[in-house]
């Protein structure tokens, strides 16, 4: 999804400090983190859509209508960009908490 991927990529690069990596490392990290966050965004979106909208969304996904998916989501979820931003922030916090837990347990 061009527009959705652009929004996700921009946010991921900023939030996770990927701009400090070499370009090839940045691309690998961006792809891996982007896939995880994309799945989390989709799950959150599915909770926000009505049954009819969810059916339409699933049809767009199955038909691989990438250009239409972003427009559909922006029309159906007025705060769609905020959903993306919040999902990225939540994932960052989860990974930070996990890293801290691992670090703490390793010191015991």
Could you describe the 3D structure shown?
This protein has 108 residues and is mostly helical. It is 83% helix and 0% strand. Helix 1 crosses helix 2 and helix 3 packs antiparallel against helix 4.
Helix and strand arrangement:
Elements: H1 2-15, H2 23-48, H3 51-62, H4 66-76, H5 80-106
Structural class: mainly alpha
Number of strands: 0
H and E order: HHHHH
Task: Count helical runs.
Answer: 5
Return the domain count. Answer: 1
Poorly predicted parts? none
> Mean pLDDT score, rounded?
84
The geometry reads as globular
Strand content: under 5%
What does the radius of gyration come to? Answer: 16 Å
Largest sheet: none
Helix proportion: over 70%
Task: Report the end-to-end length measured between terminal Cα atoms.
Answer: 45 Å
In short:
The chain is an all-alpha fold and 108 residues long. The chain is built from five helices and no strands.
Keyphrases for this structure?
mainly alpha, 83% helix, 108 residues, globular
